[in-house]
Amino acid sequence: MGVLELAKGMGVTLGKLFTKPVTVSYPEQRASIKPRFRGRHVLTRHPGTGLEKCIGCSLCAAACPAYAIYVEAAENDPAHPTSPGERYASVYEINMLRCIFCGMCEEACPTGAVVMGNEFEMADYRYRDFVYAKEDMLVGVDGSIPQRREAARKHQAVRTGFKVEGGPRAELEGVKYPT
Amino acid sequence: MPDTAWWLDLLWTVVKGVLVAFGLLTTFAYMTLVERRLLARMQIRWGPNRVGPLGLLQPLADAVKSIFKEDLRITKADQLVYTLAPLIAITCALTAFGGIPAGPAGSFFGLDPWVYKLDVGVIGLLAITSMGVYGIFLGGWASGSKYPLLGGLRSAAQIISYELGMGLSILGILMLVGSASFQSIVGWQANNGWLIIFQLFAFATFLVSSFAEVNRTPFDLPEAEQELVAGYLTEYSAIKWALFQMAEYVNMITASALMSTLFFGGYKGPVFLEGVIPGISNWPFIWLILKIAFFLFVFIWVRATLPRLRYDQLMRFGWKLIFPLALTNTIVTGFYLTYFRSAGLWPLALLGLIGFVLLVVLSDRARKLWNTPTHRPDAERPAATRPLGGD
Predict the structure, then answer these.
(1) Which pLDDT belongs to residue B376?
(2) B300 — alpha (psi -120 to 50), left (phi > 0) or beta?
(3) Distance separating the N- and C-terminal Cα atoms of chain B
(4) Which residues of B touch A20 (CB under 8 A)?
(5) pTM for this entry
């Protein structure tokens, strides 16, 4: 490697100085992620009736390698059922600090109720704010707990900082992510 | 300034000194930002752009942070020397810059645009900057920890080794000009043309050794984080760390100013602009600052490109390549000036050019001098008398 090669290398860096950076300025620009990216869980509903798919069977909790899921089941009120089965999940909590986002719950679920979504912006200050309850994960709830808190404070809609290439997966019925 | 009271002289000198220190420290602060931005752009990133518009307040944030950070007291450190070391480094760095003239005499509102004037200007500057190595060396020693010690040792050995090449590169200039004061050197260049024309070869060796002198990539071994954590800076935190960093950058600015003054006409601007605006080539500050900025850019550019040398390569490179080449240049220049002075200076420029081209062309061949492989082939290795892997 002589001086000429050094000069060639210097030329490369000088040339790169005048190219446009490839950086995605993340909070302002949306980061692009793939549809199969495993993010925060979504509890889906039946498309026609709007009933929750979850029947409170706790198979997801059994399959979870990190013991992050807690389910309590209750009998459905026949007049106003929450889910189409006999029972429904009266309590459904996932501790996002324990969760390793492996997707085993999704595989174990017999009704396809719990599905891995694409959201990942869940950073927060207190441990208790990482335990996501059913009402934090049902379809139609946009954003994580801190994002919704911030949106409520500013009286704005939740803005997620990512976009999904080609839109969300088919399993995420009714979920809308920016594309 | 004729017939003014001595205390007035003193006052103005102090004011100029403060101005120079202030200017250098501001330049240092923004140098860190400019460097990070430029490095980022060369790596196709944006770099720091969060604090203030275009990240322009980043140096301010860094300064606030390093002042209010906890100043660690190292149990095993020699407290006095440990505290003194960054002060030595920054004092020497700042003092060295004061001797460089930024304009013709009396051009700074009737004052001379330099803080002090020595007849041995170049030599004095080299002496002061070499004192700066004490800061690094003592800091490394006083930290009471092994990596800083190694870093300090490396730094001392490296700076002493390259000092020789640097000094010898300058000797040619001193012989040509016949004076070591910056003012004479700039004056000579105004009459005869920039010294880089006549001393191109010396400039090449000077450039390389000044990179080594200021501990910059590819010679930043004292701070080789893969080997030495952070070298002599390892045990330093907060403002002491910032002072070391400051000293390094100020040394870089001084090296740039030295190169501009010695080889690129110093504070004199291009003469052809005189036709457009009369007197423009004698404007103080502007030309020197432009030239310094260019060399600072080169420092950053090289940092973005070249990887670090290994330590033995660095030593071999200094002693077996830079030192003999600079010595040859000194001898050739001296020989020429003794016997062929009457032939004018242009043959000397031609000689320098030929030498430079030869250096570029033969650089690949000369590499063996400073880059011999440490791994010997099996044939040369003595036969193993015992089974490998323990008895």
Answers:
(1) 61
(2) alpha
(3) 83
(4) 44
(5) 0.79
Kindly list the domain boundaries of chain A, sorted by start residue: 26-164
| Contact between chains at B306 and A6 (C-beta distance less than 8 A) | yes
pLDDT class for A94, splitting at 50, 70, 90?
Answer: very high
Tens digit of each residue's pLDDT (9 = 90 or more) over B154-164:
888 888 888 88
The pLDDT confidence band at residue B221, using thresholds 50, 70 and 90, is confident
Confidence at B373, pLDDT banded by 50, 70, 90: low
Residue B368 Cα, gap to closest chain A Cα (Å): 11
Question: Which residues on A lie below 8 Å from B45 (Cβ)?
Answer: 21-23
Interface of B with A (CB under 8 A): 38, 40-46, 301-302, 304-306, 359-364, 367
Pairing of strands A162-164, A31-33: parallel
Residue type for B135, please?
Answer: G
Question: Are B46 and A3 an interchain contact pair (Cβ–Cβ within 8 Å)?
Answer: no
Q: Is A12 on the interface with B (CB under 8 A)?
A: yes
Residue A119, φ and ψ in degrees, nearest 5 = -75, 140
Average pLDDT over residues B330-344: 84
- Show which of residues 25-64 on chain A sit within 8 Å of chain B, judged by CB atoms: 25
Best mutation target, A14, A17, A25, to test chain B (most B CBs within 10 A): A17
Please count the residue pairs, one from chain A and one from chain B, whose beta carbons lie less than 8 angstroms apart: 47
Q: Which of B46, B362, B363 sits opposite A21 (nearest CB)?
A: B46
Q: Using CA atoms, how far apart are residues A7 and B209, in angstroms rounded to an integer? A: 18
Q: Please answer yes or no on whether B41 and A21 come within 8 Å at the CB atom.
A: yes
Tell me which residue has tokens 């200007």. Answer: B121
How far, CA to CA in Å, does B318 sit from each of A82, A112, A168, B158, B166? Answer: 81, 70, 61, 8, 10
How far apart are the C-alpha atoms of B201 and B169, rounded to whole Å?
Answer: 8
Pick the CATH number of A26-164 from 3.40.50.720, 1.10.760.10, 3.30.160.40, 3.30.70.3270: 3.30.70.3270
pLDDT one-digit tens code per residue, B171-203? 888 888 888 888 888 888 888 878 888 888 888
Continuous segment of H or E residues that includes residue A162: strand A162-164
Chain B nearest-CA distance from A28, in A, is 12
Quick check: A8 and A142 in contact, CB under 8 A?
no
Instruction: Using pLDDT thresholds of 50, 70 and 90, give the confidence band for residue B381.
Output: low
Question: Model confidence over B36-92: pLDDT tens digits?
Answer: 999 998 988 888 888 888 888 988 898 898 889 888 888 888 888 888 889 998 998
Q: How far apart are CA B154 and CA B313, in angstroms?
A: 13
Helix (H) or strand (E) run with residue A92 in it: strand A87-95
Q: Which residues of B touch A26 (CB under 8 A)?
A: none
pLDDT category, B372, cuts 50, 70, 90?
low
CB nearest A23 (choices: B46, B301, B304): B46
